[in-house]
Amino acid sequence: MSPIAVNPRALPAPRGYSHGTLVGNTLHLGGQTALDADMRIVPGGVVEQFRQAFGNVLTTLREVGGEPEDLVSVTIYLTDIPDYQAHGKEIGRVWRELAGPVYPAMAGIGCTALWQPDAVIEILGVAVIPEHRLRVP
């Protein structure tokens, strides 16, 4: 099986990376920050950036027929863990709004900076999509 790049038109055109890589029915989701369609980090704090970044992840997932319940692993990189923890309830509400009550294996990792200087969060993951829903680009 050859890897297939997954780059939804709804997301900024990637240069030097792919939004996702599909191998069989496993989608490896590239790290998503809170970039909007104009390649700008959305204004606001960690909650708004979580909404945009996770929405970008889900856009890539849905491009190949995946749904949030297909996520098996999510890793969240944070430049300010205490800020994320302070807004945990709000972030949880956003998660449930976008993905429902299903939670995959998760990790939160602190880091000093992300690629875009204004980004405070980056989310990546892995999903296994059932064959009957899989759409290969």
Automatic annotation (TrEMBL):
SUPFAM superfamilies: YjgF-like (SSF55298). GO terms for molecular function: hydrolase activity. Its EC number is 3.5.-.-. InterPro entries: RutC-like_sf (IPR035959), YjgF/YER057c/UK114 (IPR006175). The keyword Hydrolase applies. The keyword Protein biosynthesis does not apply. Keywords: Hydrolase. It is an enzyme of class 3 (hydrolase). This is RidA family protein. It comes from Allokutzneria oryzae.
